[in-house]
# Entry
Amino acid sequence: MTLLLSSLPLRRFSRLGFGILLLLHSGRSSAAPAAEPALDIRDVFVGGTEGYPAYRIPAILATSRGTLLAFAEGRATLRDHAENDLVLKRSFDRGDTWTPLMVVAEDGTNALNNPTAVVVRETGRILLMHQRYAKGFDERKAEPGLDGPRICRTFLSSSDDDGATWSTPRDITAAVKRPAVVTSTATGPGIGIQLRHGPHAGRLLMPFNQGPYGAWKVYAAISDDRGESWRVGQTAEDTGHGFANEVQMAELPDGSVLLNARNQAGAKTRKSALSKDGGETWSRLKEEPALIDPQCQGSLLAVSSGSLGEVLLFCNAASTTARSNGTVRVSRDQGKTWPLARSVYPGSFAYSCLVSLPEGAVGCLFERDQYARISFVRFPLP
# Structure
């Protein structure tokens, strides 16, 4: 198939014109790409403002009331373990404006990482998971076990008022980390999901990867009681070169679950696997040649698109050489092919998170400009 890209010149802090990436049917190219409506990019977190020199690791979701919650790590520097706090902004107008920054969790000089959130459909409660590293320790230095000064810990907090206030984080390390061999754990980053179809409807899945460093594996943490208790599913077995980490999951119409993961130290493509039992077990991981990637985090989201039914969206830095060329792709066949795509931001682009919006729109919260800012853009489904 032929992939065509057209984009208008960028203007910083203003409306951006983008072309559409159009692929074609039966391997034939169609007419020249049609111009898309201009995209309005709004900065949400800007390094050096609101108390933090740097912001990284975006996550976004829409609450049951339609409020958008944008999470990030507020960092003292761009390093991964730089006394990070978890911060939040809210939008009540689909991302046009954002509230002032609020701190959701902080732990002195320790580092909090990987904000990953999900909404409990039945109650509207928002659950937020994250990891904590003690000062001076990081993923490379983390140790196996469930207790001690060098343990990577996972915490869970919740909000019942659309993100205005949050519970004190509770330690759930023993529920989501295997007690032997495993060193680090990491949620997402991005979002968790709640299943809608099949025998496991209502189940919550939080995507995880686990160390040791350089030998990562991905799995789901599972809750069947709306987040009160958690357990670990099996890891997805890898094949070929590289290791899957930084993972997101999406439910397919038949109730199966697709995962999509960064391929660390392997080919410059994504990896995927499928679960037929609600995240308990997974097929062997396979490379996805159509989803090129510079070894960076990506976002996966299942959305309803009206006449097309449920489709999958995938967003990443679509490049094999640099964290750039932010692109959203669409699959109508449960991730087998990705026949439509559009540019989100052709410049410096890193971690991202997609969110479904009313009236067939989609939002994307993403890092850009060499991590100088985290911005939000809204656009209609292709």
User: Anything to note?
Assistant: The chain has a mean pLDDT of 90. Helices lie at 173-176.
